[in-house]
Specification:
Chain lengths: 372, 202
Amino acid sequence: MNMDALPGHKLVLDAPLPLDCGVELEPVTVAYQTYGTLNADRSNAILICHALTGDQFVADRHPITGKPGWWQAMVGPGKVFDTDRYFLICSNVLGGCMGTTGPADLNPATGKAWGLDFPVITIGDMVRAQVRLIDHLGIAKLFCVAGGSMGGMQVLEWAARYPSRMRACVPVATAARHSAQNIAFHEVGRQAITADPEWRDGAYANADTRPQRGLAVARMAAHITYLSEAALHRKFGRNLQRGSLTFGFDADFQVESYLRHQGISFTERFDANSYLYITRAMDYFDLAADHGGALAHAFTGTRVHFCVISFSSDWLFPTSESRAVVKALNSVAANVSFVEVDSDKGHDAFLLDEPEFHATVKGFLAGVESAT
Amino acid sequence: MSSLRPDLQRVAEMVAPGSRVLDIGSGDGSLLDYLHRAKQVDGRGIELSMEGVRQTVAQGLSVIQGDADTDLDDYPAGAFDYVILTQTLQATRQPKAVLENMLRIGRHAIVSFPNFGHWRVRWSLGVSGRMPKTRTLTYRWHDTPNIHLCTIRDFTDLCTELDIEVERALSLGRDGRTRFEGAGSLANLLADQAIFLLRKKT
């Protein structure tokens, strides 16, 4: 898809973006969507941060897949993020492939796609780009910053770096650092991509090809980590695709067929190099390390209201990671609420219809609104 | 504000306005909500049930899902003016550690519990030879969450052992209304429940 034809808004930053790696990146475009209306005193804005393979299309039909927005269950009139009350903003992350500058875009120095010449970015860099967007929109203080998984990492980064620019935050199914296990899974995905001969050292765009097989395998491996054993069993069990075993290596089991479909359809909407860069950004995330080794230092003196949420069957970002955040917040006597929502749907629960989760966030937002 | 349970009303009276409070086992948040509205208290809650947490969060109050036995260690010393534990001490696995933690985190602790020394309890055990079931202790022996029941005398003994000063003791009837001040033998015989305001001896 021609990215110039994407629906939604685009902001071209008027100055280079300083990155954690030391590079001053330019030009930088930030693609974003908004929902609802900004009120007169600009106090009702909520920034939504998307996950690894999400994008700015939170609550409308996806321009490539035609599917509903990834947080359609949460965002809309009368919903948790009530578009009749709040002004919602979601931008594609830096390094992404849905309109915000990333490795698939043209490098002005060469006139070709950045590929591996694109600088390695961090969660902090993504947030820095979001801050520019919020500046551009004339919003001094966000009412809330919310997001799940990698979106939750951005939420925590916001709370640690820009506490004066937000009243509340909702980090969901996330962690203050990427664990060894999570880095390991990401490495499997990256190896799958770079092992694909069509990857061509990242310069596949110049050869007008794409490492689709590698990216599909990366997605398949990652997809398993988003589900729980119980959810997989409920959905597929050992059900066969054609009623009997073929004694071959076709997709005999429904779960195989499902994963293959997930892998292939993902490649239609996602860029392989973006996947490398964004997974790397998550791996590098370690909020405690950025604050002298103690997570609590990231939040010292904070006045932000926190609502930390985890899901009981999430083994990718388990409750213990959320509790570590809560513990750090408690140790600086922050305003923190925490719920572990009972769910057997695994990490993906944050994207699904989970009434307890939705009711908690809705109540939290109302509570912060009424707090003086 | 008037719907606060009578025993919680007595607890609330012990809290100084504008103070910082941690309510352990905060339930649906009604005590925290009352303290916030009536006494401008900066409150936090710890509650085990997801439903209780959700109800409390929805009132704009801060509460974390957790329990007294495992989560008090996370709080720094002296973080609160009062740490409150109502009708829960007897259900904790390590009441002694919980009490010590409360007085580490808070300058004061407020603890209420059902008094196992009440004459009805003694009578029930002594005469019927069975574990007492009273109007304040409604469970049977095999389904009770109350694994560490104590008498007022047991509790004051523990306070002495831990160098804890009893600043105030209230003896309550089973309707939660005050009978009298003090934690002596008479209280131990007549109080259905007791509320203690405590602080660490300096």
